[in-house]
Each structure stands twice: as structure tokens, then as C-alpha cells.
Amino acid sequence: MAQCVQSVQEFIQDSFVPLVAALCSEEAERLTRKNNLGFSELVKPFCRLTSEVHMRDPNNQLHIIKNLKIAVNNIITHSPQPGGIRKLLNDVVSVSQPAEGLVTNVITAGDYDLNISDRSVTASVPWYNNWKDTLMELNASTFYSATTPWFEAYRESFLQSMPASDHEFLNHYVACMLVVSSSEPEPVEQFLKLSQEQHRIQHSSEYAYPKWFIPNTLKYYVLLHDVSAGEEQRADSVYEEMKQRYGTQGCYLLKINSRGSNRGADEQIPDPWSQYLQKNSIQNQESYDDGPYTVISNKNADHLISDGLDNDIQDGLSNNFKAHPLQLDHLSDTSSSFDGTDYIRTTSSLHESKKTSSGTPHGACLTLTDHDRIRQFIQEFTFRGLLPHIEKTIRQLNDQLISRKGLSRSLFSATKKWFSGSKVPEKSINELKNTSGLLYPPEAPELQIRKMADLCFLVQHYELAYSCYHTAKKDFLNDQAMLYAAGALEMAAVSAFLQPGAPRPYPAHYMDTAIQTYRDICKNMVLAERCVLLSAEILKSQSKYSDAAALLIRLTSEQLTWMGMDSDLRSALLLEQAAHCFINMKSPMVRKFAFHMILAGHRYSKAGQKKHALRCYCQAMQVYKGKGWSLAEDHINFTIGRQSFTLRQLDNAVSAFRHILINDSKQPAAQQGTFLREYLYVYKNVTQLSPDGPLPQLPLPYINNSATRVFFGHDRRPAEGEKQAATHISLDQEYDCESSHQWKELEEQVVAVVNKGVIPSNFQPTQYCLNSYSDNSKFPLAVVEEPVTVEVAFRNPLKIPLLLTDLSLLWKFQPKDFSAKHNGATKELACGNDMIGAEVIAEFLINSEETKLARLKLFPHQTGELHILGVVYNLGTIQGTVMIDGIDPSIGLQAGKFVYNGISVRGRQDLEIQGPRLNNTKEEKTSIKYGPDRRLDPIITEEMPLLEVFFINFPTGLLCGEIRKAYVEFVNVSKCPLTALKVVSKHPEFFTFGGNTGVLTPLNPSASENCSAYKTVVTDSTSVCTALMSSASSVNFGLGTGSQPEVIHVPLPDSVLLPGASIQLPMWLHGPDEEGVHEINFLFYYESIKKHSKMCHRVLRHTAVICTSRSLNVRATVCRSNALEDEGKGDNMLVFVDVENINTSEAGVKEFHIVQVSSNSKHWKLQKAVNRFEDKDYKLASRERGKLCFKAVRCKNSGENYTFADVVFGNEQIISSASPCADFFFRSLSSELKRTHAQSNIFQGAAKQSFDEAVRLIQKCSEVDLNIVVLWKAYVVEDSKQLILEGQHHIVLHTVGKEAFSFPQKQGFKKILGNSDWEGLEQESPEMVLLKFFRPENTSLPTRPTPEQLSNLIKTSLHYPESFNHSFHQKSLCLVPVTLLLSNCSEADVDVIIDLRHKTTSPEALEIHGSFTWLGQTQYKLQLKSQEVYNLQLKACFVRTGVYNLGTHRVFAKLADQVTLFETSQQNSMPALIIINNI
User: Which residue from 768, 770, 762 is spatially nearest to 783, judged by alpha carbons?
Assistant: First the structure.
């Protein structure tokens, strides 16, 4: 149970006190009325004695009475009516609230300070760890209400309002005060009249109420004297006469009203009456301060009990003994039962009642001396009148009992039978069950015992009282007088508990038997409830909280009623006390506490006690919240919301309903709909109270703040016919971190080019779409007159649809002028549509449990700082949203067709985005700090140009290497001219706008006829397979020294695109060499003619997706030619080109025609084709392969220009040095050089530095700078039409003898093997590859040239006749002259050693070629100058005919200025065979 202000002993002693009746004359009542008090009210604060009292028990032992209290009441001749008691108790509970005020917080209000310590709970309790936080939260609550004053007030009023009963005497009057004023004409005669009146009330059969303790009631005569108005001498004389008549022990002169009521009003005199009068008054100003509508928990709310303050009622109290203060108005229906229905009382009547009770002072005519006189009067009455009378009565009763014990049992039984009037009950079962109707006559000996016991109990003689109760209990049980027996059992148990020194344990079974008897046999719930209240308090004092809780719960059944009234109020109070018992146990039972608080709140609500019901639910909520019991939380919050709304605590109601909606509800759809409608209804009432106030926050739908995206700019224009708009960026695209990084790199690249290689410090990458992955640390930039789109992610957690209407953004704007040299003053203006235009979505439907995106736009019309705060909308529901057969009827509803259910409220939700967690410094790592997220705070800058790009005839599929011509349209849709248009891409080899030479090359009519992408000229028939020369510089194609090939200038006329203007430019496309799907990013960069401080440039993105399919596989090898020309120049090579058609006819390709092979280099050129074709056409069908051989010679000019040589196989020459052929060549060459340069940096960065000049010279001999371009046409059949496709492949030849490919090598194998073979190889490769460990090379040592590089220093060639005729008969030796040509391929002097002594050791070679001998010198040492060709004359000697290999010589070479380091043999390219014939 809750803590009480009083101890258990004090509570029981104050519950059973001697009752004294007061009978006043009208004049005496008038004197007390000067103080707005009746006589009984006047003396009430002084009825507790401040000193100990002594009396003698029947054994003449001194008995000490401590803290004695008496009760003085007016005589009431009618027992209180049930309706009056009901109203009194209901109002007493209603006006008593926690001392800190009413419930002010839905979640934490009404907490209990439970004083729970960790030491009182053992660690073995399994639930302790789970509930420890909850217990500590309850214990540390700011609201202290461990006591329950409403329960104590109810208990006190209940015990005081109990009607007197015949089976006990505790509520019977022991004495009567007769009060007369000294100002009456004949005070003594008035005393006589009052004495007679009292005698008539007690002994006349006309009055059955009140009850009197003994026939000879003590009469105490009080003369009331008004000091301020009366004559003191007359009062003294009357008092003297009274003492002579009634004795000094039986009368008293009480002087009051020492000051007049009209003076001394400003003096502060204590008012001890207010606390007593408020207990009985139902006017309490705090309980009605909730607004214009107030709840009064009674049907008869218009009738107020004013405790005798009203004159009419007071007159009734003094003269009309039939009127009882608890009696209801005669118009009220006393037979109807209380059902707890709420009724509304107007504010005016409430304020009037407040004024009556609280505005009237009490004791205005009394001084502190008068207070002391009243206190002295009560002590004199108790000491000299009451206690001697009680002591005398106890002795008389004791004497009667002693004399009764001397009689025989049979005689006593006969006497008892005679006294009882032959009413001894028969022992039938039915009568045993209903023997409460047995009545003893007043003179019955059993009642005399009970009477003595009650008197002893009232004067705290508990030991004697217990003995008498115990004796009476046996007699009553023998007689089966169950009502009497239950009363004796009840008081015997209480007496046993109150005995000092606790000689015997508390007999709880006595109380249990008494309660069961009262409840089940006697059907008297009033007495049963009194037993429960007493016993529970006793058990609580003994820390038997479990027993106390069980006892309290026994009396809370719905079926138990008393006095014709329901039991909701009683049950609510007892359930609440039981809950406190559970929480006060040694091992607190928190969940039982919460459960019984819920039950108590429910019964409070039925009893009309809305505030107490709300408090109970709030206390229980502390336990249930956050434990996963969502259904219980929903029920509690729903009830809290309803109760708060009834009490006009609208903010609390809104908060409670909000909690139901924001948690993940497990309720069915119908229940959720009910919750939502209740919330909207309450919310609407709140907004009506303050229609001009700020918009409150709405709980639905959920907003995923981190998923909010912001887009700056117009929506992408859709494609129109053949026009395809640039993809740019939109909210429909998903964020890709890698792609975003690539775009940033492209922008940095072009900005660096524009700013001469340096990125400005204030550079801020352009971000058109901001989300949770983008960098939002800086304020984003938006352009005036361009929309700002905010995408908000709504989620409906409920199972019913939500309809949002008039949905728009909430924003704040600060105008600023950025065009001036200094920023304008920041000032908030009345932001209207002239500054910011907002888009409003009329209806936005979110289906059940759906996540839906809303895109809201703002249109800034002025520069400044924009802050997007949140969204504002009307929240409503739709009628008929219950799902039938699993189909939601709201699905399929069109916009504008939704049907409201009549409730729609307007509110807002803020967009509060948390930035990324900071983790850079040590302080940030050790704490939790978040950076800013400014995606919702854009800066509106001044007007900028806006570019739109359209692609015309842009293909989606190409063959590898195919050339296609398309057009690009640039449109300036803004009001500002744009300039400095550039495009940057990571794949510059994919496209070109044409070089500077493009306009110089005229278009051939036949080329235009065939829609060729190349510029061609008709060739002469004499130049078939002979190279046609031309030259071009890379500078003409934008690839000069130090330039960035990725950044391409777009050739606009005058470099400016005016507002509203558009221009179409040709764009040539080159299919990537690898098959598959390729994503190629274009970034268009442009600037405004006017320089702005905030935004310097703008960009436009486009991603082209090209699917390439196989075409040709080209491989090439370059070898040195063994044939030395007659002019003595050895600079010629053979180029072998291997072309294979690997197309699988997927694209409908019929055949490929090789129309031209071109070379371009600074040092080499193709001279002619070695293997000629008669039909001058080179066709390759599917899977066919062809070999081409070309002779290459060194160029004469050695400038920076590239020499282009075209070997034409058809009738038209494609100008390879013009656009677009040269464009794609230079771009692919740049990409190749960039790739090889990166690889060389990785693998040879340190080694290059250690190369010496010799190594460089040797390596240069094997290097060749020759690039081959293979141009082809493909004939495609598509839709029964034959199309001609063109294309080109590039092969870069770096090294002599090393094969080069037109594609990466790995991909090349894939093309050669085919998809299936390659996939199988890829799957097996992880198992085949072994783990290898490499020792890092020591890069400090110089790298040696490879043997292949060394063997290319000298090129050798033997000149001899193919056959030689000799007559061996005439001459046995055949001498053949042989010329050995030596060519120095390097640029340095080379020492050469020719060794002719080499003999083959292979027997096979001997058999095949035979043996011969070189005549003359067998070894030669020569030095060849740079590029020198030397002829060495040799003679070979043969002895017989045959076929001989002359290539048996060995040639060694080294650089002239080096030692034998790097000396190696020069290999022969092929055998030199000679035939010797005999003639």
C-alpha cells in the first residue's frame, strides 16, 4: 500500500473515538455563526488532547491514555442516505489530487517515489536486471506522490459516515453537550428545554437515530458568552447558578468572540478550521480549472453540501433533526444507483461555489486567547465529565459481568433465554446461512459484554477490550448470531494488534472470518470494507504486502455492491492500494503493480473519476513502455488520450494518440482506423483553440529524413523523334559512388585545363542531386528562375491508406544581392510568391504500409539564401478503406476521386537531416560529433546560361572499330549567352568533332552518295597497291604538346551561343575495339560571358551506352628485310598484317572488304603491297582469314609531322590524314601512349634512370615507330536492305619481331577462342595458376639489353647466284664468288667480327646441304659507321655437285667504344641455298 501520513496505531485510534452529541439553542448557534462556523465545527480543531489522561480500570489499576481524541457532532435524527454517502465519498476523492498539481505530462506524470534500493533486491531474482532501469526511473522521478491523500480522505470520510448499528456501540453517542447563549433571557430554562429535547430524542420511539451508548447519557451544560457584545457579569451570575444546579463537573462557561468582526481584519490569525472543513467540502478550486467544460462525477451535480455554511441548512441542523447533512435534495432520486456518468457543470456556478467556500474567512471574531479557551474547554469536559463518566460506566458493566459469572450456567441460560425474548435461533442450515437477522434486546448480557469492550477500546484499554471481545465472540458464535460474532472477531483482532508490547500475534484469521461473514452471510459490504481497510493497514505495517494485496483484491469484484450502489469507486481505490503493495514488497513485482494500476484506472473511469483514471494509466505506462508490449501500450495510450480529452487536457490527448500512431502498431486495420480518427478529432479541437498559432507537428506519415534528395534544375526533356536528349542527371537515377567520383574527376580535369593546369582554391564540384551519399558540407548553389526539387520519402506504417492534401514545402528565405561587390544586409522579408513560388500537390495518397516518394518544387525568383524547413499538409483518411477479400478498395482511385471521412487536420513535419559523423581528429574519434548537412540550405545565385544537348541519329549498337556519323545539337535555353563550350571524356578515342583540316578536304560526290563518313578521292588505276603519301600534324587535331586529349573544344561559331540559339555540329563515332556494352561519359562544360562570384561555370552530363559486336581481328608484325636495295640503303622492313573476320553474323554482317591499309609515322611509311590481288578486292566472309604483306621504308623528312601512306585496294582513296580517320588515329595513339607510359612508370620507373647511352642505342635498333590503320567496309543486310558500314582498326608497332594486336591481348584470345571456349578457360584458370614468389629486382644495376635487341645491331645479306654450273671433270674445285652485305642498323659505330670457321654439327644438315669450304681469310674485323652498308667479297669452294647452305658464317658485333660487353652473334634470318651443277 501507499505510504500514509499517520501510523497504523494513530489511524485506528482516530477511526474509533468517543462520540459526543451537541445540541445548541438558536441564539448559541447565532454566536458561532459570526465566525462562519457551527458549534461542532468551532470545537473540531481542538478535540485532540495535548496531554496524557489517567483513569482507573475495574481492577483499580491506573491506565494512561495518550493522544486521546473526541468527536463532537450535531444531533441528526435520520441515518445518512446511501445517495448522500455516495456523493460525499465521490466528491472527497475527486477533489483530492497529488500535491504537485494535476497530471501535466502524459508519459511521466504521477510517478511514485518508491524508495527502492539495490540492497533490498537480491541478485538471484531473475527479472531484476530487466526491470532495474524501470525501478530506478520510478524511484528518481520528479513527481513525489508516494502517499495517496485521496485514499486517506476517502477512508476517513467512509469511516465517519458509517451509520450506527445495533450490533456494536463504537458509533453510539457517549455524552451530549447542551449549549446555550448567555444573552438569552432565561438561559436556565433554555437548558431545561434542551435537556428535555435530548431525553425525547433518546428515549422516544419516534426517533430511531442517533444511537446512544447507555440510557443514562452524560449531559454537559455549556454557557456560551459573546465577549464583544454580551454582559460578562450576567454570564458569571448565570454560570454560578448553573454550578449550583448541575455541579462544577457538569457545566462550563465558554467565552468567545473577543473581537468584533468589523475590526482587525488585517491581523493574521491562524485558521485551524480550513483543513477540517475542506475534508468535508466538495468545493476545491483546483479540480475545476480545466477550461470551460468541467466534469463532476455525480448525477446530482447541482446539489452541493456546504457543511452548514448555508443558513437554511444550518437552521435545519439546529432545529429540524430530520435533516441530515448527507441527505440529498428532495428532488433527487435517491433510489437510483450511481453509474459514474459524467455531467457538465457551467463555469459560472463553479466560480460561485468557490467563492462561497474559499472566500469566507473562519473564526474572524476569535483571538488566540479564544482558541486557548476552546482548547481548555475540551480538556475540562474530557477530564471532569467524559472520562469519569466512562470510567463509572465500565465499572458498572464489569460488576454486572462479575455477578453474572457467579450464577450457574443453567440459570444464566434461563436468564438469557428470558432476556432474549425466546429468540434463540434454531440450528437449521438455511438459518445458519442467514442468521444476521437475529437481534438481541438492549439489556441482553452479550450486548453488555460488547458494550464494555467498546468502551475499553475507545479509551485505549486494549487488553481488557480484547478479553471482552473474545468472550462475546464465543457467546455470539454459540447463538449463531453471525453479525454480532463478526463484529466481535473484527474488534478482537484489532485489539490484539494494538495491545502494547504485542503479547500475542495479530490474529489475521479473525479478520478473514469477519470479512467472509459480513460479505457472504450478512450481505453487508460496508462492514466488510471497514474490515479490509483495517486489516490491510495492519498487514502492511507488518510488511505482509502480499497478504494485504490479496485481501484488498478480494473486495473488488464487479458483482459486489453495497447500499444499492455500484462498487467502482471502492474497487478502484482498493486496486490502487493493492498495486502499491506489489511495488513495496521486498522483491518488487513491477508488472503486477502496473497491471493492477490499469485495473484501478478502469474502475476509476467507470466511477467518473477521470483525473484519477488518467493518473493510474500514466503510472502504469512507465512500466509498459519500451518493453515490446505494443498492444498494451496502445490500449494505455488510447485510454490516456480519451481521458485527457474528456478533462480538456488537449495537449496530453494529442501526445498520447500520437504515440499510438508513431509506434509500429500490430493492431488490425479497423482498430488503427479508429485510433487515427480519434487522433484527428482531438487534434482538430486543439487547433481550433488557437487557429492563428504555429502549425504543430504531425506524426504521420513517417519521413525518412536521411533519404531526402534535393535536385537543382529543370527536368530532363524527353526525346523527340530522332533527337535524343542528354541523359544529364535526374531523381530517377540511382546514386553510384564510383560514377559520381568519375564525374568529379572529369570536371576537375576540364577546370584545370581552363585555368592553365591549376584547380582554383574555391572550386566546388557541381552537384545537381544531393543525397545521403553526396558531400553536403558546403552550401549548394542553385540558379534563380530554376526550380529546386525536394524528394521526400514518406512511409505509411499503418494498414490503412493516408491521404495528404495541399502538400507543399515549408521554407524561409533571406534575400541577398550577390552581383554587388559586397553582400547585402541579411534581413528576413515577408516571403511571398514574388520571391519564392511553391508547388502544391493537391492530393497525395499513401497506401497501407507503403513507402512513397513526393517531389515538391520551389521556384526562386530572387537571389539569396533559401532554407527548406519541412513539409506542410492536411492529414486525412479515406472512407471505406477496409480490405475485402484481400483487395484494398483504395487502390485504383484516381486523383481527385478520393472521398474524405470528414476529418482532416493541417500540420507540418520538419526535415531535420543529421550530417555524417566526424572521425578525423582524435577528439572527434573519442566523442560523437556530427558534421553539417546543408543540402536543404541552397544559395540562390544570379542568372546563368543553361545548355541543352540533343543527339541526332546517335547509334546504340556498333561494330568494333566502326565509324558512324551523327549530329549534336546545342541549344541555349536561358536568357544569357554561353561561351567556352568544351566536352571532356575518359574515352576521347570514341568520338570527334573533326580537326582543323576537315574543312580543307572537299567531299567526294561518290562519298556523299554512299553516305560515307570518310573523305575520299577517286584513285588512278596506275596507283594500285602503291602507297599514296600525305602528311598532317597532331596539333591540327587538338593533340599538341602538353595538351589534354580528354578535353575537346567544341567548335562554336564565334565561340558564343546566344540566348535561344541552337546549332548542329557533326560528330563522328568510333566503335570500341572490345565487344560488349560500354558506358561512355561526356561532360559538357560552359561558362557565362559575365563572370559571377558564386558560380563560375556549369556542366551537363551525358552517358552514352553503346553495344559493340565483333568485326575484325587484326594482328601485325614487322620484320627487317634481308634484301638490301641497290642504292645501298638498308632501311626497309616487311610488315605482315593478319586480318580475320570473327563476326558471327549476329548483326547481319554479310562480308568484310579491306579497302585500304594506311600507315602513319614520323620515321616509317608503307611503300607498297608485296602480295597483290588480281581483282583488287580483299573480301573476308565469316571466319575467313587473310594475310597482307607490305614493304615499309624510312621517311625522308624527319619533322614533327606524321607521314601518312595509303595503300588502296579499291577505286577510292580514303584520306587518312583528314578527319575523321586521322582524328581517331591520333586519339587512339594518345590513349595507347598514355597506357604504355603508365605501365612503364610502374615497372621501369627506376630502371630508366640507370640506362646508359649504350643500352639506349642498342634498344633503339629494335624499336620501330610505325602505326597501321586498316580501313574496311562491311555489307549488312537489315530489313531486306543492304547497308554499307565503315570502320578502321589501329595497330601500334613498337618492336621488330613482336606481334601487335588491335585490341588488348586477353580480350583478343577471347575473340579468337570464342565465347564458350574463353568462358571455359576463365573458369579453369584459377585452378591452373600456381602461386609464385618473385624476388624484387635490384634496380640499382644497369639493365642488360636482351639478346633479341643485340642481334639487331647488324643486318647481313649474302648475294650469290642461285645455281652455279661447273665442269668438275676439267677442274676438281669449284670456286663461287659470294658477296656478304653488312648494314649497321644503329646510330653509332659498331665493331664487327665475321667468323667463317663455323661448321655445322648436325648430321642431318650434312646430309641435306653437304659440306663446302670458304677460301681465303677465315676471320674479318671491321668497323661500320652509323647506318653504313659494307660489301665483303668472299669465295666458296665446292668439290662436288649438290645443294649447299652458305649461311654458315657467324657475325659478332659490339659498340665501338665498349669492351666485349654485350657482344653477341647476329642471327641469320633464313638459310642461303645454292645449287652446284656439273656440266
Answer: 768
Residues 478, 1256: Cα–Cα separation, whole Å: 135
Helix, strand and coil in the chain, % to nearest 5: 35, 25, 40
Q: Which tens digit of pLDDT belongs to each residue from 600-614?
A: 999 999 888 888 988
Q: How many angstroms separate the CA atoms of 385 and 382, rounded?
A: 6
Assigned C-alpha cell, 737: 559512388
Segment holding 787, helix H or strand E: none
- C-alpha span between 321 and 24 (Å, rounded): 12
Task: Kindly give the interhelix angle for 630-646 and 590-606, rounded to the nearest 10 degrees.
Answer: 30
Q: How many CB atoms lie within 10 A of CB 1015?
A: 22
Given the C-alpha cell 448555508, which residue does it identify? 310
Characterise 281 by phi-psi region: left (phi > 0), alpha (psi -120 to 50), beta (else).
Answer: beta
Cell of 793: 520519402
HSE toward the beta carbon, residue 408, CA cutoff 13 A: 3
Quote the mean pLDDT of the chain.
Answer: 76
Reduce the DSSP state of residue 325 to 3 states and report it. coil
- Confidence band (pLDDT; 50, 70, 90) for 87? confident
**Does 210 sit behind a cis peptide bond, omega within 30 degrees of 0 on the bond before it?**
yes
The reported pLDDT for the residue numbered 388 is 92
Q: Which three cell numbers stand for residue 663?
A: 509506434
pLDDT at 309: 32
1411 Cβ contact partners less than 8 Å away, ≥ 6 residues apart:
1399, 1444
Measured between alpha carbons, how far is 348 from 1041 in angstroms, rounded to an integer?
A: 97
**Cell digits for 1329?**
595458376
The residue assigned the cell 677465315 is 1418
pLDDT in tens, 988-1045: 888 888 765 444 333 433 443 345 777 777 766 555 556 677 777 666 665 554 456 6
Query: What gap in Å lies between CA 1288 and CA 962, rounded to an integer?
Result: 6
Asked if 366 contacts 248 with a C-beta cutoff of 8 angstroms, the reply is no
pLDDT in tens, 1259-1278: 777 788 889 999 998 888 87
The residue among 786, 809, 936 whose CA lies nearest residue 863 is: 786
**CB-based contacts of 31, cutoff 8 Å, min separation 6:** 181, 183, 224, 226, 256, 257
What is d(CA 1277, CA 318) in angstroms, rounded to the nearest whole number?
A: 125
Whether the Cβ atoms of residue 327 and residue 81 lie closer than 8 Å to each other = yes
Rounded alpha-carbon distances, angstroms, from residue 821 to 761, 818, 1097: 20, 8, 19
Number of H helices and number of E strands within the chain?
Answer: 36, 56
Residue 1076: count of CB within 10 angstroms of its CB: 11
Alpha carbon distance 1253, 1462 (integer Å): 13
Determine the Cα–Cα distance for residues 327 and 303; give it in Å rounded to an integer.
11
Phi-psi region of 1416 (alpha: psi -120 to 50; beta: other; left: phi over 0): left
Q: What cell was used for 726? A: 542528354
- Residue 819's pLDDT band, with cuts at 50, 70 and 90, is low
Decide: pTM greater than 0.70: no
Of the CA atoms within 13 Å of residue 197, those in its CB half-sphere come to: 22
- Measuring CA to CA, which residue among 710, 712, 708 is closest to residue 860? 712
The pLDDT value given to residue 1344: 63
Residue 616, SS3 per DSSP:
helix
User: What is the reported pLDDT for 291?
Assistant: 35
- Please provide residue 900's backbone torsions phi and psi, each rounded to the nearest 5 degrees: -75, 155
Query: The C-alpha cell of 695 is what?
Result: 502549425
Question: What DSSP element (H or E) covers 1415?
Answer: strand 1413-1415
Residue 368's H or E segment, with its range, is helix 368-380
Mean pLDDT, residues 867-881 taken together: 83
The per-residue pLDDT for range 142-198, each reduced to its tens digit, is: 333 457 888 888 888 888 888 888 888 999 999 999 999 988 888 889 999 999 999
Phi-psi category of residue 1011: left, alpha or beta, with phi > 0 → left and psi -120 to 50 → alpha: left
